[in-house]
Amino acid sequence: MSSVADRRRDRRGSSIAAPIFLLVIVSVLVATAISFVVTFSGPPPFDFPSSLRSIALTLEGKGPPPFDRGGPPLGVAQAADGQDPGPGPPRRRRERAAPMARSGEVADPTARRRLAAELGVSPTAVLAFTETAGKTERDAFVGSFTFAWHEGAGWWVVRSHVPPYLTRWHVRTLLAMLVAILLLSLPAWCIAHALTRPLRRLASAADQAGTGAALPALPGGSREVRDLARAVTTMHARLAHHAEARTAMLAGIAHDLGTPLSRLAFRVEQLPEDARARAAADIGEMRAMIAATLAFTRDEAIQADARRLDLASLLDSLVQDMADAGQPVTLMPGPRAVVRGDTAALRRLFANLIENAVRYGERARVGWEIAGGNVGIWVADDGPGIDPAQAERLFQPFVRGDPSRNRATGGTGLGLAIVRSIATRHGGAATLENGDRGAMARVVLPLAS
To answer: How many angstroms separate the CA atoms of 407 and 101, rounded?
Structure first.
């Protein structure tokens, strides 16, 4: 009933869609307001057409007639409205040499002939370059144009103004868009960060929850995040139940095999001496495999209380015990590192790695280093190394590095599986790689906070 009530209460909670919908509506409103401001601030500046008559009057020095350019005199109404008055009408200039066409302009014979008629001179005394040459007979010109009249020792030249790349209207528009972006970016970032923070915490918690490890506290948040957290919790519980059932089944099978093996050992005593020795060796191997399997299932099932441990003391004690037992193992000093875990389980983890290094690589060297919030422990040997393609497969139960299946050269294939299981339960990881001389096993554990 409580879970049903929790689900009903979560449905009444806030949804992730509400802030997203609100952000979209606010963005549309702000963009619309900016568009209205830009629209009613005035049209973009543009040059009014210049008639051929006004160009002729300008060349003669009389100036363009009032209202000739399609609007009020520049600087009167426009300046009063606060608008950009524009560059003003074209003015004539005195030049010694005949002008050349500018970029985009071509000779316009029709405009040249009509300008000569307006000035009452020969067409050879005028020049006309326009962007619209040959398209149509126009009484007014827009865009780029150059007109010239040869008088005396020089030329009177009238050119259209070159528009600036950015006018004041363009600058105002860009500033308005920039203000809109700044106004919307801050709430958008806050909303996005608020929405993704619980998802990142949930992903981190799910990543930490490996096989046998407890699931950390999951974050709350919107209704969808709470639903996802509940689904992750349910999934983790199902996986843990499945792992426990598998471990219990494996332990039961291994335990029940002990009785028929004891009967077989009794009957083996009646065999001839040569056959009895071989059968006894096989039974001993089976009992060793059963003992390893029981130890593996016990490590999977037991959840000991974690406590703070000094890694250097743990490794030094383990290496000293194994060296006293005749194992060729040496410990390389390292920085002080404190971890949180089960002493017996961690000793078993590193003991398995050292035994593997001695078995396959003649001797073992143990060391550690700190990187960030983790400590990395390595166990290296002087053997032939490993096949990188098989490194991950060696951590599977009952998979051995020696394919001959001879117990004289290998174990049961559970050593590395136990190593990874213990490392995962402590929030760490275990990997295999090739070192400078032989194989190298690495275990990464989080430092105690």
So the answer is: 97
